[in-house]
Amino acid sequence: MTFPKKIGNAPLPGGSGAKILKSLAASALILALAGFTWSHFAKQSTTAQSQAAAPAAPPAPTVAAHIVENADLSVGREFIGRIEPIQTVLLKPQVPGQIESVHFKEGSAVKAGDILFTLDSKQYQAVVALRKADLAKAEANLDRASKYNERLKAADRRSVSALDLDIAANDVLQAKAAIEQAKASLRMAQIDLGYTKITAPISGRIGRTEFTKGNYVTPAGGPLASIVQVDPVRVSFAMPDRNYMERIEALRTSGASVYDTTLELADGSAYQLKGERDFEDIAMDERTGTIMMYLRFKNDKGTLIPGSMVRVAVKPAKSRVSPVIPQESLLYDAGGDYVYVIDENDVARKRAVQLGAEIGTVREVASGISAGERIIIRGLQNVRPEMPVRPTLPRNEDAAKTPSELARESGYDLKPAGSSGAAAADSPKR
Hints:
single chain; disordered C terminus
């Protein structure tokens, strides 16, 4: 038995109802696919429009990088100095007399105690003999007075008055005083006799003599000759107050040498021996703002001639190694001095630094940065903190020079310390 197909409660004739349902289902599927397709293309269009409307990110700026290096900041200085003898003696006669003989060759070396001049001593020998006679006479008077005094004291008290005893005792005292006076006179006469031989009080070189044999000289006259000490000698130079203040604490407290000092002679040659600190003057020259410094040099070969000018190279004996950076890398804001350091990811990091001495075109960094780090020296106007950058090491002639080379061109001499950063200078760090 066959049942009729229904739509709702009404029966459908034949199979037309199934066909209608299939047609409706197909239409709904087509509409759904069309809606999905339209939505997908609409989203893509919106995304494309948004991307087209958003600006492109700017490229990382190119900057010039510099690798920080250590340098020896114990900078040397040069001064004009003068060689001075430590001791100078002008020979003058202590007693008048005629020069009997001259015992030296002008310009020769003499030793302390050498006889240089001999004066006519006859008169002084006679005075010594006279003073010896006076001494003998005084001793004889003392002997007579003493014996007389003893006799009076031994006599009966009834036969000698007290006055006679007092006079005898007083005569003894006067005789003793006369002996002391005679001894002093004899000593003075012997001294004058000794002055007839004029000796060298110091070792050194003696110059030309102003008086020769046969001349009569007196203490009131001019010097006979002069002697200068030539080994060691002293070199004096004027140091500006600023340089002196840099080392004043070491100069006050150090028992060792504070400076390494060398000399350049007038012909341009270097003196082989180094000098030692002697002393410093006690006051600054208010006219020039300098203080006189004195060094001591051995001069056993007589190369250093007193009175001549030399160039004095003075360098602190103790090294002071510290990082140095170019002045152009420094920036300043309310927080103080800072630089841009490039990290391993080529990102610029703001770094505060504590600065030290200014030396030529570079600056000492007391803290905040270490040797081997990269900093930005050019292109700073395009850099902001935490910004990616494209670092390049300068290749032009000036920018490729090390701080030490730049400092030397500025009149200073920084000695590089270590080799940090040297190998990295061949190629930029990526």
